[in-house]
Fold each of these.
Amino acid sequence: MTVLQNTAALQNTAADDAGARHHELITLADGLAPIRMAVVHPVDGPSLQGAAEAQQAGLIRALLIGPAHKIEAAAAAAGIDLAGFEVIAVEHSDAAAEKAVELARAGQAEAIMKGALHSDELLRPVVDKASGLRSARRISHVFALDVPSYPKHLFVTDAAINIAPDLEAKRDIVQNAIDLAIALGIASPKVAILAPVETVTPKIAATVDAAALCKMAERGQIRGGILDGPLAFDNAISAEAAKTKGIVSPVAGDADILVVPDLNAGNILAKQMEYLAGALSAGIVLGARVPIALTSRADGPLARLTSCALATILVRHAQGGGPERNPQ
């Protein structure tokens, strides 16, 4: 089944247009060669189903890494035939994460996907200074949010990895998100640096960082995006709110990327969007040598497919291919 066929099947089961922008991202991967993805500890139904559907859609070639008997039991319970999968047997989840990193370092896996283990357990070997997948860039996470009330995808960073990033870390967080948006075909993505107020206020560190990040972009220390900040959330996503407050900005009311002050703010924002605004989310970790699809047990099939599509597009874009269309 092709990506387009799989996407159409998902759309037919939907009662409305929820997830339309996620489908657009998935179709951006149509025609790209599937990537070899190490799926770490897929020993429950959701994680194994996600890998199976992504492989069936032609997005990935899954390497299932974990205790073989648990993978087989999960497959039997979910009605999944493992005949088309490569299973790499290891003893436990820690060993699965380490094996995935080993395969990625050796070039045998082009991306990694989280299965039924905690995120910190997966990321521990990734960030190991001696044997991990560190690059010159700080590792960060991006939520791709499909918000019904917003006219395009909204990317929120960092809401999952960096707890209280300093200015240097925020520079990498911003650049990672810009690079993702560009790989998805968004030319000059608009980046809103969020804070509680729109004015630079020394007592509110987030406003000072926002101003510094904008100046760094002017000086070429951040490339490829249009930055503005500090911007309060309402001004970042509502042109009417920005107009009411007299804010003249190329970003206000039209942001592609929201950069939050810290993990607390970002995680609360992303989950509010999901549970109160009906947003659908997908997650990807950037800044390592390979992209990492960081899924949750609560994620449905569409979120997992979208996370895999993001990884596929990133890998092929880095190799000189990828979409030229704009998914907005």
Amino acid sequence: MPELRHDPVQKRWVIIATERANRPQDFIVSSRVDNGEDCPFCPGNEEFTPPDLCRIGGGGSAWKARCVPNKYPALRVEGELERAAAGQYDRMNGIGAHEVIIETPDHHSDLPELSIDDLAAVLGIYRDRILDLSRDIRFKYILIFRNHGAPAGASLSHPHSQLIATPVTPRTVAIELESARQHYLVKERCIFCDIIAQEMQEHRRIVTLDQDYVTWCPYASRLPFEMTVAPRRHSHDFAAMGNDEMVRLARHLRNVMRRMKSGLEDPPYNLMLHTCPAYHLENSRSGYWSTIRMDWHWHIEILPKLSRTAGFEWGTGFYINPTPPEEAAEFLRQVSVDDR
């Protein structure tokens, strides 16, 4: 059973997932290219993954996308939290959910190569899995993320995303939520809406925008070519989106991913979806989420891994970014992409 342990000094939870040590590739650094042989995510190899949680397309190998439980989960659905003290520390059982969204049957394809309809279908799986897991009162937050390339943490090259539901709100998200809440309490405005308005007015850090969505390089970018994708109109809950909105997001996101892939020569990257927590459940703090519909704004963060995080960053929490976001955005704006 995995275990969550709390650091009272850094105010963060750590997952002690001993079962994932069964994955030998976690401890091997290799330059070997995965050529797709014996890939558990390829059509015809469905027996090597747990049964589908959902799928798009036909039965057997005739699918377009599917979602399965992670075979080596960081957190497990079965069991009770059993919160307890451990002297000065706090712990609880590693209860949660860990799922894999296999985005396409084509091992050698990738997210930028998907059709708009197929990418919208993948985004629809994100939404549907968030809605389903949000009904479990043990889970406080659901994060969807994508690791592309070994330097970004991907152990399989077949295009896929992951979902982890946690029994606590992750520290990084909690800080964002508190900043948004405090901004609203003082100004009665969404901090993300204010940032988007300023970025669109200045336009120096805008990568691309359309009628519904905008992508920019954040003013204080942590890494070179970091990007944020967000709806231009205020929206706190990704899972509240309709199918038409998913298609429009797919068109925008594919454009962004194609700019990054072409301009930066297919870099390794991490992509994270930050949506609102499961604030409507019984385990929410009374009154804490009373303004979340007004103060929170869902967004996607994209972090190309073009520089290394080393001792200074780990020791201070600061980041050293050698590429100003204004230059990064201008470069990405100039990249020509085919949106067909």
